[in-house]
């Protein structure tokens, strides 16, 4: 079901964009339409931001059968969604799409597979999780801690828990992608059906006929029009698909592209009354980060025009860890994919980073309250070929934040260190440092869970072997295939 959330939420944002640009609504109309939509403060004012006229937006599809106040959805809605009962789904972010709007308004949307296995800190009992779990696990822990402090009001617990979950999700995405996030939009499950229904069906195209009893998908090959219930099955299906969840991700992308194509060719946005009905759905189901306004929606018009490329971020391999199927990823490859796509160049055929200079020495300073952080970070740097010198605690006069500084000749290696550790702020040249010397201060704003990015390789050989050989119907673990980019300018055919 996560799929729908993405679709819904993304589409709702697009709807707003389209209306504003297609009908020429003014400033007062913009604010009138946005009134009543929940605004989150999870994206702090001191969070890293894009520069040079670019804009990054994170679309969060929350797989929850609850409303914004934590109340169960009505049974009739759950029946229409075929989503199980109100306890199903939890608060996993089963859809995460990072949308980059360049200074030239060229749009690239990066889908983050929900099972990507990433390091995490601050969640009791976990050092790695599926990226989709950051929201729900953090929400649950935050609510427990608040209850222990004497907070029992359910509405307050729900609100504060969700804010903590959003913050955790933002940190996880920034750490994985190396990208700042300027805005985000979150949508739960309830509004998708209404949206799909209001559009009167959606055209999709399949490369092959499909049948799946789990999702209810039963469609022939070729171009076809799906009603709202069928659309749910189309985007939910993963069983019986060659690339499983990755093919489902492609379904999401194709569905979004089809909706944008349909909206572009329809007159729905020339009718303010119809649009207001859609906005009413947004008021119930959408959460926006602070700062959204007319300028942001106008820039998103590029999405509505179909000038968008959908990419699926790469997965190295599938593994089974502690009984859970996860995606092992290479953050360096992910960051290279994003950087090259944003730059408009071809994706590099290799993601192997150049070896550090033989004379480069890195000093690691722990400016945090996390015991042993400098030592763990030094281990990561050493495994990636860096020579580590002094390892120490922050001294008086040194900055409290996370800062990477370098002396003459060490600029290239300093940038490599920043990429490896997930530090978004650019390294600073310090003339007081010796030649080829890098100083890493790990302080405010640094997520300790990122220190093993690019170097974590779980020892799960036995589990993988068991999962791929047990039973007469077992087959070899498939090689993940992210597939080629999808052009948002029409109705693409997918598996």
Q: Care to describe what's here?
A:
The protein is of the alpha/beta class. It has 2 domains: 2-315 and 481-494, Aminopeptidase (3-Layer(aba) Sandwich); 361-450, Alpha-Beta Plaits, CATH 3.30.70. It has 15 helices and 22 strands. It has helices at residues 2-23, 27-34, 75-81, 134-148, 154-177, 191-198, 228-236, 244-265, 272-285, 294-299, 301-304, 331-343, 373-383, 411-421, 461-469, and strands at 38-40, 55-63, 92-101, 107-111, 117-119, 128-130, 183-187, 202-206, 210-212, 217-219, 222-226, 286-289, 308-312, 317-321, 324-328, 361-366, 387-393, 403-406, 428-429, 437-442, 486-487, 493-494. The strands form 6 sheets. An 8-stranded mixed β-sheet has the order 1-12-7-2-3-4-13-21, sandwiched between helices. A 5-stranded mixed β-sheet has the order 17-16-20-18-19, covered by helices on one side. A 3-stranded mixed β-sheet has the order 11-8-22. A hairpin with a 4-residue loop joins strand 9 (210-212) and strand 10. The longest helix is centred in the middle third of the chain and has 24 residues, at 154-177. It is globular. The model is unreliable at 1-31, 345-351 and 453-476 (pLDDT under 50).
């Amino acid at each position: 079901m996560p799929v729908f959330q993405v679709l819904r939420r993304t589409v709702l944002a697009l709807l707003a964009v389209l209306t504003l640009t297609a009908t020429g609504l003014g400033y007062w109309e913009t604010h009138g339409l946005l009134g009543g939509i929940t605004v989150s403060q999870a994206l702090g004012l001191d969070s890293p931001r894009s520069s040079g006229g670019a804009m990054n937006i994170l679309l969060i599809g929350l797989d929850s059968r609850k409303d914004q106040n934590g109340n169960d959805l009505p049974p009739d809605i759950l029946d229409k969604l075929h989503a199980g009962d109100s306890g199903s789904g939890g608060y996993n972010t089963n859809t995460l799409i990072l949308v980059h709007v360049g200074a030239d308004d060229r749009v690239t949307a990066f889908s983050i597979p929900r099972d990507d296995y990433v390091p995490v800190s601050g969640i009791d009992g976990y050092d790695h999780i599926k990226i989709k779990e950051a929201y729900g696990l953090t929400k649950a822990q935050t609510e427990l801690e608040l209850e222990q402090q004497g907070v029992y009001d359910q509405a307050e617990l729900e609100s504060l828990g969700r804010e903590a979950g959003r913050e955790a999700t933002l940190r996880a995405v920034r750490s994985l992608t190396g990208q700042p996030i300027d805005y985000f939009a979150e949508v739960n499950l309830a509004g998708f059906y209404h949206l799909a229904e209001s559009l009167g069906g959606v055209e999709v195209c399949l490369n092959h006929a499909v049948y799946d009893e789990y999702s209810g998908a039963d469609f022939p090959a070729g171009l076809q029009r799906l009603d709202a219930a069928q659309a749910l099955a189309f985007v939910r299906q993963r069983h019986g698909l060659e690339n499983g969840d990755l093919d489902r991700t492609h379904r999401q992308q194709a569905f979004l592209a089809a909706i944008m194509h349909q909206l572009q060719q329809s007159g729905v946005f020339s009718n303010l009354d119809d649009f207001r009905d859609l906005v009413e759905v947004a008021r119930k189901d959408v959460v926006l980060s602070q700062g959204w306004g007319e300028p942001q929606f106008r820039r998103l018009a590029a999405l509505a025009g179909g000038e968008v490329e959908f990419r699926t971020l790469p997965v190295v391999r599938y593994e089974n860890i502690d009984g859970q199927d996860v995606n092992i990823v290479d953050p360096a490859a992910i960051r290279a994919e994003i950087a090259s796509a944003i730059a408009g160049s071809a994706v590099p055929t290799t993601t192997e980073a150049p070896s550090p200079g033989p004379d480069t020495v890195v000093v690691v300073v722990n400016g945090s309250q996390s015991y042993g952080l400098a030592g763990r970070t030094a281990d990561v740097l050493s495994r990636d070929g860096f020579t580590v010198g002094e390892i120490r605690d922050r001294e008086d006069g040194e900055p409290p934040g996370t800062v990477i500084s370098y002396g003459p000749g060490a600029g290239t290696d300093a940038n490599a260190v920043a990429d490896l550790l997930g530090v978004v702020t650019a390294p600073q040249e310090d003339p007081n440092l010796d030649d080829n010397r890098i100083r890493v201060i790990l302080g405010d704003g640094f997520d300790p869970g990122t220190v093993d990015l690019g170097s974590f390789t779980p020892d799960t050989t036995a589990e993988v072997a068991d999962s791929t050989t047990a039973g007469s119907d077992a087959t070899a673990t498939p090689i993940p295939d992210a597939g080629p980019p999808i052009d948002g300018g029409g109705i693409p055919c997918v598996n």
